Amino acid sequence: MTTNARTLGRIPFHVVAGGLAVVFLFPLLWSLWASVSPQPGTGQTSGYGLGNYRTLLDYDAGLVRYFVNSTIVSVLTVAVTLLVSLLGGYAFARFTFPGKNVLFLLTLAILMVPYATLLIPLYVLLGELGLQNSLVGLSLVLAMYQLPFATFMMRISFESVPKELEESAMVDGCGTAGALVRVMLPAVKPGLITVGLFAFLAAWNDFIAPLILISDSQSAPLPLAIANLRQQSMGAVDYGATEAGVVVLAVPCLALFLLLQRHYIRGFMAGALKG
Amino acid sequence: MHTKTIRRPATSSSEGVPAPRRAATSVKAPWWRSRQAKGLGYAAPTAILVAVLFIWPLFLVGRMSLSDWPLLTGYRGYNTPENYDDVVSSELFWPAVRFTLLYTVIATVLLIGLALVLAMLVQESRRGVGFFRTVFFLPSALGLASAALLFYGFYSPTVGPVSGLLQELGLSDKPVSFLGTPTAALMSTVFLIVWKFAGFYMLILLVGLQRIPGEVYEAARMDGASRFQVFRSITLPLLRPSLALCLLLCVTGSLLAFDQFFILTKGGPDNATVTVVQLIYREAFQRMNLGTAGALSVIVLLVLLVLNFVQFRGLRDADK
User: Fold this and answer.
1) Among A161, A109, A149, which residue's Cα sits nearest to residue A274?
2) How many contacts, defined by CB atoms under 8 Å, are there between A and B?
3) 0.80 surpassed by pTM
4) What ipTM describes this predicted complex?
């Protein structure tokens, strides 16, 4: 009787959740299917195959180039974000220095300023610094936008490491840098992975910053290149190549997410607790 | 080769420094060796990045908004308050403000509503819950631009699956244009956003739900409260901080909407879906006027600061 009631009680859950799951999965599966299925006016006119990916491979500067651009931007952004937030987090968690609180508040204040508001002056500023249209300039801007979350995350990571660990390293003759590299680094590794993951995804996926800061189609990262592909073909949009591009963009993100689910959740918890 | 042999002794002698250095601190350490200075040193990269890429542009945008500043020829002197007059009297300004607000209200209500349903659905651990949590969250792992490009094909009357499906079901006798009318374009974009972000907000609400102690629910059940009563007088109030955070993120994000409209509708049909941020982009890169783009940016920044301030006050009161 009780088992029966429990099974019955479970049916609505599975019907509702299952129905919603179909709605959530369907567009993803459709784009995968559309990228390999035949459509008139695409690189794949009959039968299933990789024709759309071949179109993408040869489009303008070439898929490989765009993929490399995106990889450069993402790796640079992750590297800068990790380095700056590692040192900054250490400073904010373990040291007192003049201007500490002001600097921390200013870093968090980046969150309060809308993306688009800063990008127009950044466009002018990077021009003055000779970094216009450069992947390095773009990466620095993307890293700056990661700082509020990254610094906050690294600060709480360092604060949760017991002080004794560091002190014993100092007694053994380590300087602060030695203590940081030898003792603290392993202890804050989960924080670093979370920060790196979020920085990678943000850099890989960002659209508006390259749209404004990159004017040369040779230097465009993937999202911008694929959006341009759609706008360039007058009248007829190559939907097949567009969906192939979506798949190329999505696969690294979905793979990383499935691989590092735990760190994802940790990041959101940090965000939620902050509120 | 030569330099190496010279440097070698130098490094090895500095390796031997720790002991004498510690002795020196107890006598009189130079300021740059103090712990304060070291902290400052570790914070220096942050400070440089914040100063150069955040503070400086903030000043620059203020100056831009007060100047005659064509994109191609550069700064041409102050023209206060011409840019602000131009922005506010521009034909597209008030329609863009109205549209952005409308979009924000609709997107926020639907998004947080669905996220709450999803979170309640997957909060208990039972068989299959892990799978559903992952599936609901999966679209959040995608970038917004990728998601918008995906739906650009998905909504297409020729290749998209939905239009054909509606025709086969007899719900429409001709291909459905999801982006063809202002209302359809708005609702199609809202659907994209709900699909993309519901899992993200679900996760925040899930964290909130799991922080509600089980004893509270047990006590309510002992008192004979109905499921709806429990939801209304226990779940909702205790979830308020998490809901407030979702609200803050969602309202801010929607007011700054750009990617989704830029990719899906390009502001059309007939400028019906131009958001405020799109207007900034158009002023700067289509009308090539950094002055008005700057003025619009400053207006957006001030409105958002006030809004965030009010919402933060609300958040703090919710905690009390």
Assistant:
1) A149
2) 272
3) yes
4) 0.90
